[in-house]
Amino acid sequence: MKIGEYPSLSDRLYPTLRKYEKDLGDSYPELRMAVNLYSHNVGIGSFTYLRRVLEKVVSDTAKIKYAEQSDWDFAKWRRNKRSFEDMISDLSDRLPSFLVGNPLLYGILSKGIHDLKEDECLEYFEIIEKAIVEILDEKIRISERDNSLNFVSEKLSKIQFKLDNNKK
Prior knowledge:
By secondary structure, the chain is mostly helical. It contains 9 helices and no strands.
């Protein structure tokens, strides 16, 4: 049996997770906790925190999509969906394509929490964590692309405005 490791697995992984802090906000500690629990051989608990991160991605997306509807209520929206897959389907135009293409991820996490044994969750943790990281990376890429497109569009509009005013 191995005793101690320096630097620990969580110490090695934390720096790679830092880039998700801004995007996850209050849920960033949950991602760190998932890795920390896994590094201490707690499989079911690590799945619990990964599922919370996935839920945060979906709930944030729903809140952004429906922000302009004054009568929209997240809790009511969530109750009206029969499953997590229904939520993903409803938000498919705004969620990372990896998540839309792999809605089974939530079911695997739930099964891990409710039905699997510790060692099974530990066995599957790395690939599940990689899937979550892929979703977060894609979300960041989408955000960066949207920011870049908005910046360029704004500059083009200013140029057009300037050119139109110079003709007069």
